[in-house]
Amino acid sequence: MAGFPDHRRFALVALDEAGLLYALRSLEDPALRFLVAPPAPFFPDYAPELDDEQAALLGLGSAEDALVLVVVTPGASPADATANLLAPVVVNQRTRTAAQVVLDQDLPLHAPLGG
Hints:
The protein is mainly beta. The protein has one helix and seven strands, in the order βββαββββ. Strands 1, 2, 3, 4, 5, 6 and 7 form a seven-stranded antiparallel sheet that branches. It has one helix spanning about 50-60; strands at about 10-15, 20-25, 35, 65-75, 80-90, 95-100, 110. InterPro entries: Flagellar_assembly_factor_FliW, Flagellar_assmbl_FliW_dom_sf.
């Protein structure tokens, strides 16, 4: 995760039964957690494009191997929550390796989850 170079191993923990919210919890420091979510329920037109170098870094053979999650910043109320669409977390579902990648696209860092 950007800004946390000493934290390289994370567990993905579901926070609700619907699969809308997850926590990426550091295995080095369990108190460090990032709220993440699959983008489709909130941003149905979101189509991140990884470059060849990013895909190779993760060992992605096809788009189906990738699980894309956006980092969510909670707000004072649920309606104030935002998602970072510019730098999603991409997980190779076959190898379970992941990285936060910065996309070469014009996407917001703080897109409102509510629309």
